[in-house]
Amino acid sequence: AHAASAVLNFSENCTPDILTPYLDGIVSKLLVLLQNGKQMVQEGALTALASVADSSQGQFQKYYDAVMPYLKAILVNANDKSNRMLRAKSMECISLVGMAVGKDKFRDDAKQVMEVLMSLQGSQMEADDPTTSYMLQAWARLCKCLGQEFIPYMSVVMPPLLQSAQLKPDVIITSADSDVDIDDEDESIQTITLGDKRIGIKTSVLEEKATACNMLCCYADELKEGFFPWIDQVAPTLVPLLKFYFHEEVRKAAVSAMPELLRSAKLAVEKGQSQGRNESYVKQLTDYIIPALVEALHKEPEIDICASMLDALNESIQ
């Protein structure tokens, strides 16, 4: 397990040309761990393999046929509660390997993997199941890899993603000088002070919300006009989050998504893929997004997010 995590640390910042001479040895040893290791070791091997694939990119092609069957076997068979993290890591690894080798090599396996993910998504998962957030990220990587070929799966991916993006934060409010203590040591609760109030928020909810908002931005960016059918649901979800002061990542993702939504609408209208909508729809969307960005900019406490908002405004106006 330590060796696998050392490989992870080493490969994370490597370029393909540094890593390539060592790939034969690294990949074959990690495969041995995948086949014979204890669960913790297997999890470490999956994370290391994902990182190696991500860092070596196209150089990973030659190992694909040896590696992918093992990854798919774990995805399909690791379905006990005790194996949840193993299955989640296999999703991460498969999607990063797919991105590394490209859609022509990955296409057939991608279809099988997406069938498994769709059936998992339809099953009832427990609130603390790590699979959910790993799956959101795996879907987004699969979309990046497959591009427009991913569009048929959007009707499966989007409903739970919108649900996660719309999560209401789980909040405990006390007055700043109250004796009722929100435990500062408790890592599952984040505390912030607003005026004379202290607010404790469950971090897992915030993290899931932030991941979902990032994924929405990613889909809009990747699919361009193909994202058009979802704009009517996504814009009213993300625009209010420009002022979601409980979590910076949520605001950053919402900001980044604004020009992407406008670009998607504009391209769809230009290419005749806008389901009968015309330029007036783009104007309506612009009139909704730009004032919201300007208003959020006035109230934004973080300098770097102000800068992102100005960039987003600039892109949106263009």
From TrEMBL:
Any GO CC annotation of this UniProt entry: cytoplasm
Ranges of residues in domain Importin subunit beta-1/Transportin-1-like TPR repeats: 20-168
Pfam families to which the protein is assigned, alphabetical: TPR_IMB1
InterPro entries hit by this protein: ARM-like, ARM-type_fold, IMB1_TNPO1-like_TPR, Importin_beta
Subcellular location: Cytoplasm
Keyword annotations: Cytoplasm, Protein transport, Repeat, Transport
GO biological process: protein import into nucleus
UniProt cross-references to PANTHER family, sorted A to Z: IMPORTIN BETA
Name assigned to this protein: Importin subunit beta-1/Transportin-1-like TPR repeats domain-containing protein
Organism (species): Citrus sinensis (Sweet orange)
